[in-house]
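Incident log, structure service

09:12 report received: a user says their structure output differs between two submissions of the same chain.
09:20 pulled the input from the user's history:
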Amino acid sequence: MNNNNVKKMSDSLINAYTVILIFLFGYFFKRFKLVSIKTARDLSYVVMYVTLPCAILGGSSGEIDLQTSMFFILPLSFIVGLVLPLIGYFLYRKQPDRCVYTMLNLGGFNIGNFVLPFMQSILSPEGFIALCLFDVINAFFCFGGVYCLALYLNRKGFDSGEKIDLKKILIELAKSITSYCCILSVALSATGVVMPKEILEPVKLIGSSNTFLCMFVIGVALNFDMNFAGIKRILTMLFLRYGSAFVIAIMIWTLLPFSPMVRFVLVAITFAPITSLAPITAIRCLPQFAEDSANLNMMSVITSVIIITMLNASAPLFLG
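09:34 re-ran on a clean worker, output below:
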């Protein structure tokens, strides 16, 4: 193994234990009553509307040759984003509460807060654009798409206190600032337009706090006092999520006509953790499952840390 490969593996491991360390910060801050769930809920808005958009915009730089075929990533993202929550619906449609919980935690990928920082050391400009294109649609699912789909399909047996109709769905999707930022980032990179330094530097500085804030919020929501039913739910969800991801990853790598870098990025995305917004959404409509959702999110992050660290370490084998 040459020095470059050793460095990539070292960088991946540093990212891995840093993410877990931030989780633990949040957890122990709550345990020592320095912060509360209310604090986490308030900080979640800072993540969604400030730091994550800045992290995405801060990554757009340099002109690339954006091939028309890469726009196929958009419908691919839509299909993948739709299939996962529908698996949950067909498995648990006769148990509305469990069905909503499963759909919320199967749909959406934590790309901006996990895959982006994890893959940053090996991402080429082409790989970055592939990631942004996938996240354009993924962000719509994370920011209200899966939530509206879950409540709409379970409207007869689940009372969320909200009326879900076309207007409500459009309002929820319109909140997806992340998608707008991904579109803008793709446009800037494709045209070679670079933001002025006076704008770019503050954006990068704000975006650099994104990973910490997001993981800290999830850490605050954690609760390790799980009963057998909670552990069983988490293990079932992990099996569904990563079993589906494995099948999708094989199909992406063997069937899609993209470059090795683009396919490698898409495979890494399929093994991304459950969106960090899932526990926040659970607090909103399923407070009885909020701690389960947070614990599942952490276990998902740990699972993805192991898988994506292995992918990063073996990147030279895939990319040549």
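09:41 both user submissions now match this output. Likely a transient worker issue. Closing.
09:42 reviewer note: The mean pLDDT is 80. The two ends are 14 Å apart (CA to CA).
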